[in-house]
Specification:
5 strands, 16 helices, signal-anchor, Carbohydrate sulfotransferase, sulfotransferase activity, alpha/beta, 8% strand
């Protein structure tokens, strides 16, 4: 397995990889890879509070609050993007800082993105403007010009599996957070959110899990919803979807998902040595 330090010394590799969602907290000597749809907004708020920024109740109850996503706001409390450092500074931080990320089952994450960015937002939103026409035109025979252009989950799945079009809200983890290079200290799972957040907060920050945002944790109701959407897919579509995210599932300890929506895990946070597989 190639280390992050070795990777950073390769100028061809350095060119664009570190412009991903890596946040650095120099005060606590931490690097966090913040994946969209995996509680990244909540983790930004947690990091801000741990760095001494007092957040109002409105922030905790509104995870979509724009302020927490502004680089200028994060910089004010000492949180910077990894790409803002020099190569030597990055090398030092990769070698000496604690590194962690959170993941969730990739298919469940995709559904969360679909419901939020397509179903909830509706036609006219950014995601419809960015992807809607390509998804619909490529997978549907329109009956009339007046037909409501609502993207279905099955259409999004076909768009991703057939054309391999990715977005930060459903891209593959291993190409974004670089687990085979970063040598993460901790990998938490949304499926064990409270337990894993509590563990990381205590181990890394010496903090207790209290007065922090509540997350929509994976539960029976969530699995039932996931199952409803998965039943709209054909067997071949579900197979293709599992294949797209197969490497992520292998690396982060997930089984292929079935149409009943069961999310089964192979590993947990505390078995980190078995989580990051060499690929």
């Amino acid at each position: 397995m190639r280390s992050g330090v070795e990777a950073i010394q390769d100028s061809s590799y350095l060119s664009d990889r570190w412009s991903g969602p890596f946040l650095v907290d120099d005060k606590h000597k931490v690097i966090y890879c913040g994946l969209e749809k995996v509680a990244s907004s909540s983790w930004k708020m947690i990091l801000m509070q741990l760095s001494g920024h007092v957040l109002s109740d409105d922030h905790w109850h509104d995870a979509d609050h724009r302020e927490i996503h502004l680089k200028s706001v994060l910089r004010e409390v000492g949180i910077r993007g990894l790409q803002e450092y020099t190569a030597a500074e990055i090398t030092h931080r990769l070698a000496n800082y604690t590194k962690f990320l959170f993941v969730r089952h990739p298919v469940d994450r995709l559904l969360s993105a679909f419901r939020d960015k397509f179903e909830k937002a509706g036609p006219g939103s950014y995601f419809y403007q960015r992807y809607g026409s390509d998804i619909i035109n490529g997978h549907r025979q329109l009956k009339s010009e007046d037909e409501v252009l609502m993207v279905s989950f099955a259409e999004l799945v076909r768009f991703i599996t057939e054309h391999h079009v990715f977005d930060p809200h459903w891209d593959v983890y291993y190409e974004v957070c670089l687990p085979c290079f970063m040598n993460y200290t901790y990998v938490g799972h949304m499926e064990n959110f409270v337990e894993d957040v509590s563990y990381i907060l205590k181990a890394v920050f010496g903090a207790e899990f209290k007065n922090f945002p509540q997350i929509n944790i994976i539960n029976k109701q969530r699995r039932n919803i996931l199952s409803q959407y998965l039943h709209t897919l054909s067997a071949s579509e579900l197979k293709s979807l599992n294949e797209v995210y197969d490497i992520d599932m292998q690396i982060f300890g997930y089984h292929h998902i079935t149409e009943n929506g069961n999310i089964s895990m192979i590993s947990s946070l505390h078995q980190k040595e078995n989580l990051i597989a060499e690929i």
